[in-house]
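Re-run requested by the PI after the first attempt was lost when the workstation crashed. Everything re-entered from the original request form. Ligand of interest: iron/sulfur cluster.
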Amino acid sequence: MSRIHTTEEKQLIDSLGRVHNNLRISVTDRCNIRCFYCMPAENIEFQPREELLTYEEIERFVTVAATLGVSKLRLTGGEPLLRKDLSKLIKRLAAIPGIRDLALTTNGLLLAEQAAALKSAGLDRVNISLDTLNEQTFEKISRRPGLERVLEGIFAAQQADFKKIRLNAIAIRNLTEAEVIPLAQFARIHALELRFIEFMPLDAEGHWEPEDILTGATIRSLLENELCPLEPIERDDPSQPATDYRFTDGLGTIGFINPVSEPFCGDCNRLRLTAEGQIRNCLFSDTEWDAKSILRNTRSDHELAQLLRECVAAKLPAHGIGQPDFKKPTLAMYQIGG
Ligand code: SAM
Ligand code: SF4
């Protein structure tokens, strides 16, 4: 099997000039909770384990992607910490030439026991999902108990001293309004960054409606009325999806990811690899490029690189949510990788 050895960077640039240097890798579609905005409550058919890419296959894929300019990785799922010995994968990925930033998104339930090992394996940053500080609301959202364990996970991550720890909260109308102030206060007290992410039409049960959107603008005014004025922070990276603000009393920052009310497709630099080895160029496109069949059939790294280029070349300008011909993707968030 041939390996690409190139010093000349052949970047993954699409027809709109968007440079794709950011890869999200789902390591599993399984999860230990059942958030209603992501997974079905029951009767879930998970991918058989043999369909998931092995750590060797993921490493090979990333090695090829890195020769094409991919430098930022985020591991996600499903719940990535359910995958056995995830720190072994992190160690392999951190050693790949060209990889400069290695991050993880987790629900935090298994983080307390894994944080130290993840950090020493080379994980730079952790995003922890935290939608509420109320156990009853946690159970209503995730259909499972566990808030205490998530909080333990957050504190363990702080102990492990990652470069950055961020809290992600979903923003859904008639649910999140009551959580905004307690979450912001928690983040401020514990010196954590907090970002609110608008609910997207990626729930498995297909209940999403445009009316469910709680915009960043609404949350901002809740925060300014109850806590403190906010001032925008200049973006250092135009492809970052969040708009960040700092509290003018100097205590913390708040960010908003508004993919529906303020789409940022024009600056998108992201590609996705699903747990079963399919490449996707957008959360909202159903088209997949089959990397697994190349990885499993002793085909060359050149073919893998070509597949990545084809995937990027076919990327549409925007997700089209709100357009008359928009169709919700067939896969839900946990199947693609959030
Ligand atoms: N299980 C991990 C977790 O929850 O952090 C990683 C995977 S999860 C799919 C990644 C992120 O996607 C979470 O922050 C979650 O809140 C977010 N998410 C899931 N479904 C969503 C939806 N329909 N709209 C917006 N964000 C969603
Ligand atoms: Fe699991 Fe994360 Fe989806 Fe919640 S959002 S069901 S934690 S994969």
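Saved to the shared folder this time. The pocket of S-adenosylmethionine (ligand 1) is lined by residues 31, 37-38, 76-77, 79, 105-107, 129, 168, 170, 197, 199-200, 202-203, 333-334, 338 (CB under 6 Å).
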